[in-house]
Each structure stands twice: as structure tokens, then as C-alpha cells.
Write a structure and sequence with these properties.
Strand order of the largest sheet: 1-2-3-4-5-6
Distance between the termini: 54 Å
Largest sheet: 6 strands, antiparallel
Radius of gyration: 30 Å
Helix content: under 10%
Strand content: 25-35%
Length: 650
């Protein structure tokens, strides 16, 4: 075994790998044999890659003497000189191996490095051959007029290694030399925008650099030695599948101006990667669309139900309409299309997809032939949200093995206890392994043993590392990362049940000092932002931020209350008032609150609600509205910092 130590250039993301701009040079890379400490030094290395079998180390050189540049391969454990796969002036970027590590591709401008805008070429190296070979240039048949090979973006092989996906783009416009101007001449600087533009002017400015660097996907068909351009200005986005033949494309041009005040839509196409032919599948698609393992189906959620679209015939089957439960987020209370509860993914044979309702998991045939509640209704019966989790750290497997048992996470949506279950894809009630008033991380399984590593936390317990065996009967603490906490007065947390002014049952999280005395009355700080009770078992480090720090407040003798808020469209301020005041009263009724010392704080959206509430109630002795909007009418036409988009879409 050998370990590369690259000075200044982290593994694979080399300093010399930057495309365009001023020259950047590599640094020394040290190859150290871990067995005996023997070292070799390679100079001017900008990017490197170990093959997975450990037999070869590939690296690129970016030197001040550009004649030394190139892509080289060395054998770890051997004193043999590195072999050049391709060398000479220029850059060598984006080293990319296929799934089975039998071939590698990269781009280089070695034949045109001195040009102001050098022409890039794509090269491929078969590990059975001594050198890399050019496969695609800007003169290769198959490129659409006005496109050239681009150095922007990454390369990628198809799953079976028969296709190489590369990037093409229109050439950058020539920048004319500035004419000598009279020093007394005044220059006008203007921004031009038309209502016919796809995007608002501030959005165009924010995205200018990204738009200049935009690339479009093309495919090099390796056995056929044929180039097919898949994306262009009429369909910018293309996503590949497990099938070497089929890809999915999206076109949002017709709906771009809607994004200012509506949601995001696009037309979804099936693309034949062998010809570039396109077929429309979904018009004005709002949902998320993904591939089955074999590229036989596309899975789509439309805001209400899940459907499959068979490829290439385009037949659509609704998978969930007849199952008697809802698959969209029933808690959605914003004027937008609800999101899905989600999907665990496909079985590796492509014969089933696992879909979530609010509580349980369904195993559904993609052709609509059958569906089974995989967890037998256990989640709904026990108010526990069950979700599939992947515990293996290593391996490329992206699909679920139907022959193995699976592990599920569980969270009680009333108490917010959490834990883990074991289940079978054949169905039946899942077997509980552990359930506690804690928040657990996903367990990670050791490669060669039934040992799991995870963390568990509560508001009063730091998320230290825990280990356990396959039974999860004993969670053994193996770290102590926060010993100073023992010296401090911390706190406890609990769930408070209440009803808002409209009678809707809700919850809040109440945090109390560790030395809480029910005979005393405490000042209380309220913090709001939509729903927050799910954080009741989260540890909070005492650190400054844009909002109050709960641990700091309870340590200094406060109660802290974080009530859940549900909204009625058009009345966000009133909705907050109807939830927050009853939650406060539920705690006041316990007789532990100093009613003359109740404060409230929130940031951004929480700040807006506070700004509204203080015009309607005298309940609060002190308020802090962080970064609030205090006038929704003016905010409606405001521009969001960073993105340049108008707030109307909200």
C-alpha cells in the first residue's frame, strides 16, 4: 500500500487543473510506501489518481518549462521511470476512469496550447495500451454547427463503459483590443433589459459567469467510434441512465418567465444516445423524475401521485392513486405544490420501487401490476415514520438488494423518539431494534464485521460516538468529545402539546434549566420559525449566531419555548399569532412562568412574524426581530440578495 502526499494540491483536485486564466503550476508529490516508509518524489504535479487495484498512479505535470507537461503513469513499489501517456505543452485535465477501471479519459490543449483560445481535444487511454489516443476534436463529425469541445465540466463513462460523455459549447466570443481613448472622454455604463428576456436583469448579472461557462453534453460511442451531441440551446440539460442507449432531457425555455411568480416547470424528453433523437414524454412537468436501474422506466412525482413512464414507448402508469393513502407532504401549508414524502429507491433487479407515505414504505411494481405495504402499516399504527437507510460505507451499489434484510430508521411524530428497525422486502411488521428519546445518526457498518458506528444525542447529551453489534441491544460510548460540559449548568427538553386558536393540535419544544425548580417562576424566551419541535432531542452548542442560543439561555435561568406554527394562505402573521399565544399559555398554565418577563426572537421569516405580532398583542416584554420584512407589499417586488430573483415567487 502506498499513500500520495501532495503539497498544496489535494487529492485529484490539482492546482494546475484550473482551465483558462493565468498559468498555474504543480507542486511536489511524495509517494510513500506505508510498509517501510520508502519515498519517491514527483515534481510539478497538478492532478493525480490511483487506480483502485493500486497498481498504477496517474498524474499530470504542470511545469514552468511547459515542454515537461503531460500525463504520466508510475508503478507504486517500482523504481521504474514514469511512462508518458501523452506529453508536451499545454494542460491535461479531468482524469476520469470508467466503472471497472479498464479505461480512462481526459482533455488536453497540447496541440494548440499557444493560442489565445486553444482548441481542446478528448483523449482515451485503454489500460492495455502504452499511450493515450485522441478520440474527439472540434472537427469530429457529429458536433452541431457552432460548437467546439469544451474544457469546462467533467467527463463521465456510461455504466457499461461503452459511452464517454463529454462537454461541448459555443466558442467564447473574441474580446477586441481596447482602442486608445481620449482621457477626457466620459463612458456611459448601462444595463439593458427587455421584458422579453428569460430572466430578470439582476439574475442575468448573477449568472453571467455561469452562462459564459455553460456546456452541453455529447456522447462518444466507443465501439462505433461515433460522436452524438445530445444537448444544445434548445435542450440544455441531459441526464444519463443505466442504459447506454437512453438519456433524459429537460427544456424549461417556455416557462422561465413564470419562475418570477410561479414554480419551476420543464418539458421532459427521452433522448436516444445513439442518434440524438428526442421524444416528448411530459409537458410542463413540475415533479422530480429519475431512472430505474435498467433504464426501462422513468419514475415521476406530479405533486400528488407517483407514476412510471416506460421507455421508449412513453406509456404512463399511475402507481399510487388507488392505494388509499397520500404520498404528498400533508403538512404543506404554503401556496405551492406539495413535495413527495420520497422514495427509498429501486431494487437492483428493477422489478420494484420503494415509495414512502407519511409513515410506511410501499413496494410497488413499476408496471402497476401490484403494490404491498412493505411495513404492514406498523408506522401508521404507532405514529412512527419509517424510512430505509443504507448502512454500508463502501461499495458502488446504488440499488437495494431484494435478497437481503434492510434497516429502517424510525421517528415517532408525536414524541420525537427515534431508533432503528430491521425489515424484509418480502413484507411484514418490522422488528424494533432500539427506540429512545434521542436523535441518532445513520449507523455505519464495518466492512468485515457486524459492528456499527453511530452517534446519539439529546439536548443534554453531546453526540459522542457509539458502537453496537447487529442486535443494537447495547450502545457503547467510545468517545468523550465534550468533557467541559460537565462543569456547566445545562438543561432538559420536553414536548408540550397544545391547540392553536383554530383548534388544530400542535406541539412545541420546551427547554428548562438543568436545576429547574417547579416552585419558582422563570423568565421565558420564545423562538419561532415554522415547525421546530422535531429538534427537541438535538444538542445545541453554546455559540453565537443570528438567533438566540437555547443552551446559553437555559444555562442562565430561562425557559425557552419553540412552538410549531401552521399557516393559512394569505395570513402568515395572523397564523403565527394563533399558534404562538396558545403555546405560551399552555406553559404559563403550569405556573412556572414570570408573565412579566416573556420575550420573543426570530430571524428573517420569524422576524416578519414578530414584527406583525407586536402590533396585535402586549404579551411580550421584549422582542428581537432579526432581518425582518415589515412590509409584505414592498417586499413582493424586492430582489433577493445573492440570487437576483424577485421575491414574488414566494
Amino acid at each position: 500500500d502506498a499513500l500520495p502526499i501532495c503539497g498544496g494540491a489535494a487529492g485529484g483536485a490539482g492546482r494546475g487543473g484550473a482551465a483558462g486564466g493565468r498559468a498555474q503550476f504543480g507542486t511536489d508529490m511524495v509517494l510513500r510506501a506505508l510498509a517501510d516508509g520508502a519515498e519517491r518524489t514527483f515534481t510539478d504535479v497538478s492532478e493525480f489518481h490511483f487506480t483502485e487495484d493500486g497498481k498504477q498512479l496517474l498524474y499530470t505535470v504542470s511545469a514552468r518549462d511547459t515542454a515537461k507537461n503531460g500525463l504520466f503513469v508510475a508503478k507504486p513499489g517500482s523504481a521504474d521511470a514514469p511512462v508518458a501517456l501523452l506529453n508536451g505543452n499545454g494542460k491535461y485535465l479531468h482524469l476520469t476512469f470508467d466503472e471497472n477501471q479498464t479505461q480512462m479519459a481526459f482533455v488536453s490543449d497540447k496541440d494548440d496550447a499557444a493560442a489565445k483560445q486553444p482548441k481542446w481535444k478528448v483523449y482515451r487511454w485503454d489500460r492495455q495500451t502504452p499511450t493515450a489516443a485522441e478520440i474527439v476534436s472540434s472537427q469530429t463529425p457529429g458536433l452541431k454547427p457552432g460548437f467546439i469541445v469544451s474544457d469546462k465540466g467533467n467527463l463521465g463513462f456510461s455504466r457499461d463503459g461503452s459511452r464517454l460523455f463529454l462537454n461541448v459549447a459555443p466558442p467564447a466570443p473574441e474580446v477586441p483590443e481596447e482602442a486608445a481613448a481620449d482621457s477626457t472622454e466620459e463612458k456611459a455604463v448601462v444595463d439593458l433589459w427587455s421584458y422579453k428576456d428569460d430572466y430578470l436583469q439582476p439574475v442575468q448579472k448573477v449568472r453571467a459567469a455561469r452562462d459564459r461557462d455553460r456546456t452541453f453534453m455529447a456522447a462518444w460511442l466507443i465501439p462505433e467510434k461515433k460522436l452524438v451531441q445530445l444537448a444544445d440551446n434548445e435542450m440544455e440539460s441531459v441526464g444519463t441512465s443505466e442504459s447506454p442507449q437512453w438519456a433524459m432531457g429537460t427544456d424549461d425555455r417556455e416557462y422561465r418567465r413564470l419562475q418570477d411568480y410561479d414554480e419551476h416547470y420543464s418539458d421532459t424528453y427521452i433522448v436516444d444516445a445513439t442518434t440524438g433523437a428526442r421524444k416528448l414524454l411530459i409537458k410542463k412537468n413540475h415533479g422530480s423524475t429519475s431512472w430505474s436501474p435498467n433504464g426501462r422506466y422513468l419514475l415521476n412525482f406530479d405533486g400528488k401521485d407517483w407514476s412510471t413512464i416506460s421507455v421508449p414507448d412513453g406509456k404512463t402508469v399511475n402507481l399510487t392513486a388507488s392505494l388509499g393513502v397520500k404520498f404528498f407532504n400533508e403538512d404543506t401549508d404554503t401556496p405551492s405544490t406539495p413535495g413527495a414524502y420520497g422514495s427509498a429507491g429501486w431494487t437492483k433487479d428493477g422489478k420494484s420501487v420503494l415509495i414512502y407515505d407519511r409513515f410506511d414504505i410501499w413496494r410497488v411494481s413499476p408496471d402497476g401490476a401490484g403494490a404491498r405495504n412493505l411495513t404492514a402499516g406498523y408506522g401508521r399504527a404507532h405514529d412512527v415514520r419509517l424510512r430505509y437507510i443504507r448502512t454500508e460505507v463502501e461499495g458502488r451499489e446504488r440499488w437495494i438488494d431484494p435478497s437481503k434484510s434492510i434497516m429502517l430508521s424510525g421517528e415517532n411524530l408525536k414524541t420525537f423518539e427515534s431508533g432503528f428497525f430491521r425489515a424484509s422486502l418480502e413484507g411484514g411488521e418490522p422488528k424494533p431494534l432500539v427506540m429512545a428519546a434521542k436523535s441518532f445518526s445513520v449507523p455505519l457498518k464495518a466492512k468485515d464485521a457486524d459492528v456499527y458506528l453511530l452517534t446519539g444525542q439529546t439536548f443534554n447529551e453531546f453526540p459522542d460516538l457509539l458502537t453496537t453489534d447487529n442486535s443494537f441491544k447495547e450502545l457503547r460510548k467510545v468517545s468523550n468529545a465534550d468533557p467541559q460540559k460537565a462543569q456547566l449548568n445545562w438543561g432538559t427538553s420536553e414536548v408540550v402539546n397544545f391547540k392553536n386558536a383554530d383548534g388544530v393540535p400542535l406541539t412545541a419544544a420546551l427547554y428548562k434549566p438543568e436545576n429547574f425548580d417547579a416552585r419558582k417562576k422563570y423568565p421565558m424566551m420564545v423562538y419561532i420559525y415554522e415547525r421546530l419541535t422535531q429538534n427537541v432531542n438535538h444538542f445545541v452548542n453554546p455559540a453565537p449566531g443570528t438567533s438566540i442560543n437555547i443552551s446559553y439561555y437555559v444555562s442562565n435561568g430561562y425557559l425557552v419555548l419553540t412552538p410549531d406554527i401552521v399557516y393559512t394562505t394569505g395570513y402568515p402573521g395572523q397564523s403565527a399569532l394563533k399558534c404562538v399565544l396558545p403555546a405560551i399559555q399552555a406553559v404559563v398554565d403550569r405556573g412556572v412562568v414570570d408573565e412579566k418577563a416573556i420575550g420573543i426572537q426570530g430571524h428573517s421569516w420569524g422576524g416578519y412574524q414578530i414584527a406583525y405580532m407586536v402590533t396585535q398583542t402586549n404579551r411580550f416584554r421584549a422582542v428581537a426581530a432579526g432581518a425582518p420584512v415589515v412590509n409584505m407589499i414592498s417586499a413582493y417586488d424586492g430582489i433577493r440578495w445573492g440570487t437576483g430573483i424577485t421575491r414574488q415567487f414566494q
